[in-house]
Specification:
It contains nine helices and eleven strands. The chain is α+β, with helices and mostly antiparallel strands. The protein folds into two domains: about 170 residues, Formiminotransferase-cyclodeaminase, Chain B, domain 1, CATH 3.30.990.10; about 110 residues, Alpha-Beta Plaits, CATH 3.30.70.670.
Length: about 300
């Protein structure tokens, strides 16, 4: 069996379909790459593309994507509710078939060096690729976003792992790292009160005594005039999708609102799925292709 590495770049464009298609086409152009999912969101103004291949092909595809984004997106004029540090905000590498975390780390480091040497975009390593302990948590790199980083990049604690202490003029910086599978999961509330979403996010967030392995933010979706609890579940074995949904619902009930629907960003592993999950979690557009093993 061949080696398979999963890559899930997030880039700062969620509205311009022509631009998104050109960036996706850049990934498709690399031999040996299979694109599994493309998700774009208007309010986050962000797209997430999921693809797999052998490590060398994945590295080439991630580089080609970054190069294309550099040519098409100017991060200085970007607006969206999701935090970001660059036009290509983050490039995660996840070991799948016949690959190890060491393979993912090595690929991420090679990609980072190439992005700096050829594109002059400064690089931060996070997750298992982190070279500084506090950068293992992506939130510590992304804290304050692009505009704060622009003013602080010269500080010792904010210096890139590779590159000069200056952001790329139009592309900013990029975080690259190896990590285990995670689930990106958003819950939309029947409310337009941002404070409600923030309270619920804080309640379920691990760093505030909530659910283990859950990262959460409350955001306002202008296009729909409602609020969302946007989450990453870093260990679905420790905290399941059902447990996250239930915890959000309990707090929403306390605050006098309800859950309208939820959505999965990218794919989930088979073992995270449970019978009638799409009904229980109120996922409107669920497809079997959202299960990683069924898309490979």
């Amino acid at each position: 069996m061949s080696k398979l590495l999963e890559c899930i770049p997030n880039f700062c464009e969620g509205t311009n379909k022509e631009t998104i298609n050109k960036i996706t086409a850049a990934v498709f152009s690399i031999a040996g790459i299979k694109v599994l999912d493309v998700h774009s969101d208007v309010d986050h103004n962000r797209s997430v593309i999921t693809f797999v291949g052998e490590p060398e092909a994945v590295k080439k595809a991630a580089f080609r994507l970054t190069e294309t984004v550099r040519d098409l997106i100017d991060v200085r004029s970007h607006h969206g509710v999701h935090p970001f540090i660059g036009a290509v905000d983050v490039i995660p590498m996840v070991p799948l078939q016949n690959t190890t975390m060491e393979d993912a780390i090595a690929t991420s480091k090679e990609l980072g060096r190439e992005i700096w040497e050829k594109l002059q975009i400064p690089v931060y390593f996070y997750g298992e690729s982190a070279e500084l302990p506090y950068r293992k948590n992506l939130a510590n790199i992304r804290r304050g976003g692009y505009f704060r980083l622009k003013n602080e990049i010269h500080l010792p604690e904010r210096t890139p792992d590779i590159g000069n202490n200056e952001l790329h003029p139009t592309c900013g910086a990029v975080a690259i790292g190896a990590r285990a599978l995670l689930i990106a999961f958003n819950i939309n509330l029947d409310s337009n009160d941002l404070e409600t979403a923030k309270i619920i996010a804080k309640n379920v967030r691990e760093t505030h005594g909530g659910l283990p392995g859950v990262k959460a933010l409350g955001v306002y979706l202008k296009s729909r005039d409602l609020v969302q609890v946007t989450m990453n579940i870093t260990d679905h074995k420790e905290t399941s999708l059902k447990e996250v949904f239930d915890a959000v619902k309990v707090k929403a009930d306390e605050l006098g609102t309800d859950i309208l629907e939820s959505e999965l960003i990218g794919l989930i592993p088979q073992e995270a799925y449970f019978p009638d999950m799409e009904t229980y979690l109120k996922i409107a557009d669920f497809s079997p292709k959202k299960v990683l093993e069924k898309s490979l």
